[in-house]
Design brief:
With 385 residues, this protein is of the alpha/beta class. The protein has 13 helices and 19 strands. It has helices at residues 11-22, 47-55, 59-63, 87-93, 103-112, 162-167, 232-239, 247-252, 284-287, 296-311, 317-342, 350-366, 368-379, and strands at residues 3-7, 26-31, 42-45, 66-67, 71-75, 81-86, 99-102, 119-121, 125-129, 138-142, 147-150, 152-155, 175-187, 196-199, 203-209, 214-222, 260-266, 275-276, 279-281. α1 packs parallel to α5, α1 (11-22) runs parallel beside α10 and α2 runs parallel beside α10.
């Protein structure tokens, strides 16, 4: 039986293990954390991600969660809508629905789809020898289980991937976008929440209702890299005190331990390939991107499905090369599009912000079909047959 060791039990790693196991592989997933505690709060799954989950056999478990519905769009800090549309109609025009759920729910669904005993928690990886297709196996040295030999190693160890650094030692490190972000999940107000982003001067507040009656909130600010605060909720209440309802209400009830704070970084320089020897990189380890299109996790799910389809039931140089050929151009294009979409949100000049608002209104009125065509290329992806 062909064997794979997956380094990292995030969305990309778990999905890759499920995809390979469904094709008859023996899979082992190594996660250095002692428990599955996903970094993040909510996650939006666009139609392309749902098709990938269908291919993994867990789509039905996700599609019953909260779907984007009602009015969605862009607002000003005073609450005025800059542009809005019907979420259900917009998503249906793009070919399917979209679902928003807590990241831990998706991780739990993927973990439950693994073969029994495949997931090993509390096992770190200290080195990977990539081996050669048609030659020596890959060797993974661990902190607890000694050395593991495998026909394939899937590097899914995130944006700061140690495997990527070892395979591409001279490649530029992830780049700071200039924006830091806070995320949390809170109980929804009595009046509910409209799914929307609010853009201010160098800041965004995004609100998305979840199926369980809570709200996924993310907030950003333009700050020097590494800026931290002793009390994140207090800082957020100070920054967004005069923004429209229900933002102050949500922030008033947040406890310090409930807020995640991370600088937003991405691989601005794409890797030359996603395979080295018997190692394939997936997710943020391969193509960490800005979050502005909400495609980071979605692309990791695509990676998993395409990797398994490219390899079939064995490892070959041709199969791994096919994976890179299928994934590198697409993820590079989407990462750059995400960076372009997010750049205006970091503008702080009052004049630039005013022009941005006018441009968004005009784009919503006249450039909607063009933007939908661009998004259709992103979310219209279909799993390989």
């Amino acid at each position: 039986m062909t064997s794979a060791v997956v380094v990292g039990a995030g969305i990309g790693g778990l999905a890759a293990a499920v995809a390979l196991a469904r094709r008859g592989w023996s899979v082992t997933v190594l996660e250095r954390a002692a428990a599955l505690e996903p970094v993040g709060a909510g996650i939006a799954l666009a139609p392309n991600a749902l098709r990938a989950l269908d291919a993994l056999g867990v789509g039905d478990g996700v599609r019953g969660r909260a779907r984007l519905s009602g009015e969605v769009g862009l607002r000003r800090p005073d609450g005025r809508w800059v542009v809005r549309t019907d979420a259900s109609a917009a998503v249906e025009r793009l070919g399917d629905t979209a679902v928003v759920l807590h990241r831990s729910q998706l991780v739990d669904l993927l973990a439950a789809a693994l073969p029994e005993g495949a997931l090993r928690l509390g096992v770190g990886v200290t080195s990977v020898a990539p081996g050669e297709p048609g030659g020596s196996q890959a060797l993974v040295t661990t902190t607890r289980d000694g050395e593991l030999a495998a026909d394939l190693v899937v590097a899914a160890d995130g944006i700061d991937s140690a495997v990527r650094r070892a395979l591409f030692p001279s490649h530029p490190a992830p780049t700071y976008t200039g924006v830091t972000a806070w995320r949390f999940v809170a109980p929804a107000p009595a009046d509910g929440v409209a799914p929307a982003e609010t853009w201010g001067r160098g800041s965004i507040v995004g609100l998305t209702p979840l199926a369980d009656g809570r709200v996924y909130c993310y907030l950003t600010a333009v700050l020097p890299e590494g800026t931290r605060f002793d009390d994140d909720p207090a800082e957020l209440r100070r920054r967004f005190a005069d923004w429209h309802a229900p933002i102050p209400e949500l922030l008033a009830r947040v406890e310090p331990g409930a807020v995640l704070h991370h600088d937003l970084r991405w691989l601005a320089t794409p890797l030359p390939r996603f395979d080295v020897g018997r190692v394939a990189l997936v997710g943020d380890a391969a193509h960490a991107m800005p979050p502005n299109l909400g495609q980071g996790g979605c692309q990791a799910l695509e990676d998993a499905v395409v990797l398994a389809a490219s390899l079939g039931d064995t490892v070959s140089a041709a199969g791994l090369a096919a994976y890179t050929t299928a994934r590198l151009p697409r993820t590079t294009r989407i990462a750059r599009m995400s960076a372009q979409v997010g750049a205006p949100s970091a503008w702080t000049s009052p004049a630039a912000v005013a022009l941005r608002g006018l441009g968004v209104r005009l784009a919503g009125r006249f450039a909607g079909p063009l933007m939908e065509r661009r998004l259709r290329d992103v979310v219209g992806w279909q799993p390989p047959v």
